Structures are given as structure tokens and as C-alpha cells.
Fold these 2 entries.
Entry 1:
Amino acid sequence: MADGTRALFMLFGGTGDLALRKLYPALFNLYKKGSLSKHFALLGLSRKELSDEEFRAKIMTSIADETADQQVATEFVSHFYWKSHDVNNMDHYQDLKKIGNQLDDQYQTGGNRVFYVSMAPRFFGIVAQNLQSQHVLSENGGFNRLVIEKPFGRDYQSAKELNDQLNSGFQENQIFRIDHYLGKETVEAIPVLRFGNPLLEAVWNQNYIKDVQITLAESLGVEDRAGYYDTAGALRDMIQNHTLQIVSYLAMDQPNSFVDTAIRAEKVKALESMEIYTDQGVKDNFVRGQYAGDEDHPDYRHESGVPVDSNNDTFAAGKIVFNNPRWGKTPFYIRSGKKLADKQGRVDIEFKKPLVDIFAKGTGTPGELQKNVLTLEIDPRVGLSLTINTKDSKQGLHTETVPLDYLQSDNRAAQVPLPYERLFHDILNGDGTYFASWPEVAAAWHFVDPVQQVWDTQQPDFPNYQQGSMGPTAADELLARDGNAWFYRGTK
Ligand code: NAD
């Protein structure tokens, strides 16, 4: 086994849903591959009283799907320790400091520390401040990295306050704001597709691209997350973070090199050149929705835990216009929602048709040229497709459209690291490429805040879309006004 990065993890929220379902399996995979050194330890923390053995039993269950070799699993969990910890109790941080130093010595971690806050967002800032004020940070030359889950604020102001709290103990290059979409294969591939293929990058601008469409659709409803979701909505839960992050990779200019600081600088420039809408602009360019019920399923307002008068958006769509030379008036359309036709994360890039279609033979003649569409499939399939015009095989000259397809095989999919595995790997290597920097988060809130503010002051006409559809008809009209249409229409 290669000697991967050494580190002590302090995981706040160590028995939480995210930790058990995603974080431990991801760490185990890194360990099996040698990217995480045997010189690691993990201290799980929450208010629960557990023995190390009880904690290790939970880890065993959590990694069961990833376990082939029982001996390796047993060896892995032997690095796990538990400490009951209340994030507001200063004495408990003194304990952390002592245990941290012991584990550093015992596992020869090189003093490297990863503080992962996998708790409700109201605790993010408190933990960061207390770690600093109580001197829990490593002081013997190792790195100190802080990992923060989502959501990062609920508007610019709250995000700024949170960021100021984090900055009291950590510098920007020590803060890793998780956006798990950035750990997905297709999203990570966007810069390579663009800047590794002159064929694409040469036409990646307003002269050739008619419009860009990003769809992050979920087929599930609010499930058991109403408490959180009803205070967030689709705009905050999916658009401000995941969708705008994908937009930034699609829209940015080429960085000087592929290092996180250079990439982040270009992403910020792209996000800051999005037009911020006036109240009228919001009404013209954004659509919100809430799902209706059907014979077998309640509408959103009758889901468990949702107030019957909730005006929360379970669907959001919008049009982004960039004020920059690359994109000019090429619109980026975005949409995300719950209870849609199917689970589908994708980008459809529609190219312009040729100015002159020399194959067009008049009305009713088959074979008029169609626009090229490049599709990037993010979820659940991983794939690429480009539709191109060619001649069909019949007598005479008629054109037809065929796809050039790449679809990840099941075999290859089985080898692909889990999103959290990639992200942990990057955290251990100090690589912030696939994390959201503060200026990006700020720019995204500056764009989203005016939309939310208009929505907060106006009574919506909810419910306004059927379960199993692709959202309200107003989302179709948004594109139709520009002479466009959603390329992806759902499979139902
Ligand atoms: P959870 O409620 O399951 O776990 C929270 C943990 O915090 C528990 O271990 C709990 O014991 C601990 N805790 C609560 N109050 C405490 C206190 N005062 N002192 C010490 N410990 C305390 O939450 P989760 O679903 O695991 O989510 C964790 C974070 O991850 C949240 O920020 C959430 O938004 C984010 N997230 C979760 C998911 C998911 O699938 N669960 C997905 C994306 C993001």
C-alpha cells in the first residue's frame, strides 16, 4: 500500500446521517487505495456517549458495502476513536486539544489536521471560532484544514457573517466548502473537455452557441427533510450552489494553469459577470413552482412537516445573461425541482444552425439541417453526446441527425471514485479546485438574493405543476419567448 497523506480527522457530527452514509465509506475507499496513510486517526464527535468500540461497530456497518477484505476493514476501524462533545462547551475543546496531541503522537500524523463540520449549519461558525480560540489547531507544522458542509448561508448577509466567523481561525486556502456536485465525474470533466479539445473551445462562445441549458431534476419529493427544505426551497437548495457552480465551469475563460487559485479566479470572473436582475428582471427571467398532488400522492403543502400555507418553491428556473465578450447575449437557462419526470442532472449546449442551409429543399422536404447539441450527462448516467448532421442512407440527398455518444460502462462506473472520495482526496492534498471559494459563493448570492426578495414579497399561485412533469408551463414559456425550447423533456 502506498503511503498516502497522513492526518488526524476531527469529525463533528460523527454519528450523523451524512457521516455514516457517505463520509466513512469514502474514507475507507481512500484507505484501501493507499491515498490515506496508515498514519491516520479519526476522532468522532457529537453529544452522544459512545465507547470507541460502539463507534467502531457503527463504522463497520457504514462501510459494509465497500468491504471485501474483513481484515482491512478491521484494521481501518481500529483508527477510529470517539469523544462526547458539546460544541458550546469550552472544556470539551480542551479535551480535544489533549486527545489530538495524543493521537498525533500515536499515529505519527505529522500534525496534519482536518476538521470536518458535518452538523447543522448554525454550528459551522461556532466550531471554527472555538477551535481557534481554544487552540485546538495543530501548532507543530502540520496543516489545519476546515471542511464545511452545505448550506453556506441563506442569503449574502448570512453567508458573509458565517464566512467572517470561519476567517477568525482559518484562511481562505484552509477552508473547503463542500459542494458534492463538484465531486461528480462529468462536472470534474468540464474543464478538460473545454480546454483539452480545441474542437470545442474554438466554438465555445456566443458566435456559435445558441443557448446553454442546465437541468438538475429530482423525481423524489421532500421526503423526510421538510424541516430544512421548507426554509430553503429549490432556489437556495439547488440553484445558488450546485447549479451556479456548474454554470461557472461552463462559462469561465481559460485559466493560465490548472491550479485551484487560477481556476477560482476565472470562475469568479464568470459569476460576477452575470447580470443582476431588477424586480422587473426577476419577474421576466425567473419562474418558481410548487408541485400539486395526484390520486396517490399529496401535494407539497400536505407532505409531512410542511405548513399547509407554505409558499416554498419546489421548482426554480431562470435565465442567466452574461455581460462579457464570450457570452454576450447567449442565454444560460437553468432549472431544478422536485417530483419531476425523472432524476436527471445534465447540460445541453445548443449550437447555432449554419447561416445558410444549402440542403434545405423547401417545405415538407425531410432533411433540413438541425442544430448540433452537446449533452453532458451528470446523473444518474455519466456520458457525453453530440448530435451531428449527416446524410441518411436513402436514395437521393437527405440529411439526418445522428448522435456521437459516449456512455460510461458499468465496469468503468464501478471503478469511479465516489464524489466524497474525490473530495476527501483533494482536501488531503490541499487542492481547492472542486470546492466553492468565498468570492464565488458571494457572487452566487448576489445573483440569487434579488430573486428571493421578489418571491418573498409576492403571493405565488401554487400549486402550479403536476408531479411527473418537467415543471410549470411558465418555465417553457421562459425559453419560448427567446425562440428556444428545453431540449430535455423528461422520459415520462
Ligand atoms: P444529522 O442531524 O444526521 O447529524 C448531525 C450531527 O450533529 C449528529 O451527530 C448530532 O448528534 C450532532 N449534534 C447536534 N447538535 C450537537 C451539539 N450541540 N454538539 C455536538 N454535536 C451535536 O445531520 P446530517 O444529515 O448528517 O447533516 C450534516 C451536514 O451535512 C448538514 O450541514 C447538512 O446540511 C449537510 N448535508 C447532509 C446531507 C445528507 O445526505 N444527510 C447531504 C448534503 C449536505
Entry 2:
Amino acid sequence: MTQDAGAPLAAMFINGQFQQAQGGETFVSINPANGQPVARIPFGDDRDARLAVDAAADAFPVWSRLSAAVRARHLHRVADILERRRGEMALVITSEEGKPLHEAQGELQLSIDSLRWYGEEARRAYGSWIPDPVPGRRLLTQRDPVGVCGAIIPWNVPCGMIFRKAAPALAAGCTMVLKPAEATSYVALKIAEVFAEADLPAGVINFVTGKASAIGNVFLTDERVRKISFTGSTETGRVLLRGAADHIKRTSMELGGNAPVILFEDCDLDASLRAVAALKFLNAGQACIGANRIYVQSSIHDEVGRRLADHARQMKVGEGSLPGVAMGPLVDMKAVEKVEELVGDAVRKGASVRAGGSRMQGEAYEKGSFYAPTVLTEVPRTARMHDEEIFGPVAALYAFETEEQAVELANDVPYGLSAYIFTENMDRAIRVGERLETGMVGINEIRLGAAEAPFGGVKMSGIGREGGREGLDEYLETKLLAIRVKG
Ligand code: NAD
């Protein structure tokens, strides 16, 4: 483990106490814009995870028996504190993840909305009285919390993903142990401070940082953990699903994206280009719902390529906390190398570079992991980036001729998280939207997330939904009560 005496020492949050790892080890999280240490983070393992599960299991009987109205008051208090500390929290997100401040603010808003909305929604977790075919019996159902939940968080939405899981879980009456990604552990431990300040009963929510496989293994093997909620790559999701099978655990899997964007020649080109550029370069392309394959009808392919390239060249790239910065760094140099590899492969197979196509040059970028906003046109179907998530600021344009061909291409991958259609022909938008094999479709719209709306994928993009009523169901069991009534 690296040690760095200069960085602040963060602490895990277990059973209402801030503490270091049982093994005493730490690691350093790094600001991807300048290579500076952000914080020293406890490198916990199975021992720490076990303590956290003990705490969550002990807290469950108390927390689950509080009324939903009381739990809602707790969540509103967490939201109030997050709102008050949002300036400080946005800076932490930007310094550890790299995204520009305005994007960090967006994550915080979604987090606050989730806390407030789920606090209230859980008060409406109604059961039902079922018309009974058998005389002298009554059938009713009630909604019970699942129990202790383990949550595993990715680095690219390090704050939003915590609340998308914790808000419905806690509102429903579950208790939780969260494991953030290594790269963004400090964000999570600052969020733990917010929960500590809100003074929830000890053990209701716990944060364990460190060795992913060891902590994950406790979630998989400890009988008391009844559900695992995971957001991350399809590869890791597969490993967790296999492990969860042994103990028949409930799982929610928010996995990889590879979203298609279809630009028809009858779209409102100015508005569509603004939307596609915003979607593509959001979080430097490191978004599960990001534009991975941009299919452009051949009559407008050249113009779209040229205008997107103009936009890419004008973008201000830099440290996300600086004013006017539109795009920050990638999460680390490994991510930059992967983007280089995918661009090299596409160019070798015939794609043309219209903008970018390399790391950012210049002194300001030397210590960070920056890749230039890039536009490639005439990308062939055989390029690796067609089938893999680029997870970088590379707009890959593919030409198509007909509506039928666009739908076939869009569905021709094993993923199905989000898709986007740009057209002014509403018949076409509905026709195509209905045929796309994804959990979400944006029609002349790229913003898909809201606390009120179900978010999630089909095919290899996952199982389950976050957000909306469906997101609460993920943390509830339905219990049937059959009652004999005399007389
Ligand atoms: P990742 O799978 O590498 O890591 C995700 C999390 O899993 C991290 O906390 C990591 O430490 C943990 N992890 C890794 N191996 C583990 C193991 N064996 N046991 C337990 N935990 C383990 O993914 P990432 O690189 O952090 O995130 C990027 C991926 O997440 C992309 O594929 C992206 O599309 C996806 N994502 C999906 C959504 C969605 O809602 N569908 C949202 C955001 C990101």
C-alpha cells in the first residue's frame, strides 16, 4: 500500500463510529487532474466488512420497526445536511473523480431528490386485501423490508449512486453496508460524515473501503446479507451473480451500457447536435448512459461529423474546479490507455479522425489523465469500439441508410441500457423507440434520470431498476397473510 503523510486521513464508518481498518493499512486516492493525493483511505478487508454486517444486522430490528414516517424524517434530515454542505461536497467529487463542478452539482441534486422522494414514497408502500375465493378466510399482503443490504458503488457517479441505493433501502426499512470504488472512496467517506451528522441510529448505514473482492465476498457469503445492489461493469456483475447464487440472494445489477444514438435526416439538427455533444462528453465520456455508437443517416453524416468536430475542438478541457471547464480528465492513466487502444483499432480499420485523437498536449495536462475530445467518422462496424464501452470522450459516427438498418445496428450488441433517437417525425420516433432493446429510450432528449423515474437496463446491461416506485420494490418483500375468520 502507498503511504502519503501529506493527505488527510479518512475513516470508515461502522456502527456509528469512524474507524481505521482492522489491519491498519491505508491507500492514497489521487486527483486525476493533477496527480496530487486527495486523501489516505483505510484499506479494509473481510474483517471490517464483517463488523459492518454485524452492525447492520443489529440495527435492522429497530430501524425496520420504526414507522415509515419517522424514517422519512431521518432521510429529510440527511437531505438538509447534504444541501447545506453541497458546495464542499461538489469540490470533493470533482477533486477525486475529475468531473466539472456543474456535473458534480447535478449528482448532488439527484441525491437530495432521491432522499426526499423515497422518504415520502416508502410511506405509500401499501399492502392489499385480496378478494378471497374461500369462505371464512381473508387474504392480505404487506410489504416488508428485505433486510441487510450490501451495496457496491462505481467510481463514475460516486455520490449519486450511493443515494440511489441508500435512499430507497433505508426508506423501506432495510439497513445497509456500502462499499465504494477504490478511486472515489473519499467521496463516500465524506458522505458518511453527512449521515453521522444526521445522527441515524448506529449501524443503519455503514461504509467500508478497501479490498473489493474480500468485502464483496462477505456480502456474498454472510447469510445475514439478504440483498446485493451492484452498479459497475458487466464483468464484475457476472462474478457477483455467480456468487449470489450459492445463497439465493436477491440482486440488483446496474451494468455496462454501450448506448446507440440514432440521428435521422429529419431531426432538428441544431438542437440534436447540442444534445449529442452534451451526452457524449458528459463526465469525459465515462457514463453508462453515454453515447457509445452514433448512427447518422448518410445524407447528414458529413455535416454532423464536421459540426461535432468544431464543437469538440472548442471545448475547454482542464481541472474540473476551474471556471468554464467543460470536460475534465479520465479517471486514471489506464483509462487513457484503453481509449488510445480503441481509437487506434478504429483508425487502422478505416475510421477518420475529425478532431482530437490523442492525449491533451501542454503543461496544464502533464500531471493528469487527459484525453482530447475526439470525433471519428466512417467508423466501420468491425471496430472494437462498436461492441465495447469506450468510456472516454470519443464520438464514433457510423453511417446508415434506412430506418430498418438503424434499428438492426442499434440492437446488434448484447447490451441494452439506454438509446436515443433524434427525429421530428413522431411516428418514426415511436415506431423506432418501441423496437429498441433497451431499458430507456430518449426521444429528442438525453436527460433520463429523476428520482421519480425507473432507471435500468435489459440484456447484459442488468437486472432491476433504480429510481421510481420500481426502485423501492427492489428493497421490499411481499408477505401474504391468510387469516381464518370465524362466524
Ligand atoms: P467495476 O465493475 O470495475 O467496479 C464497480 C465496483 O465493483 C467497484 O466498487 C469495485 O471496487 C467493485 N468490485 C470489483 N470487483 C469486485 C469483486 N470481485 N467483488 C466485489 N466488488 C468488486 O466498474 P467501474 O469501472 O467502477 O464502473 C464502470 C462501469 O459501471 C461501466 O461499465 C459502466 O457502464 C457501469 N455503470 C453502470 C451504471 C448503470 O446504472 N447501469 C451506472 C454507472 C456505471
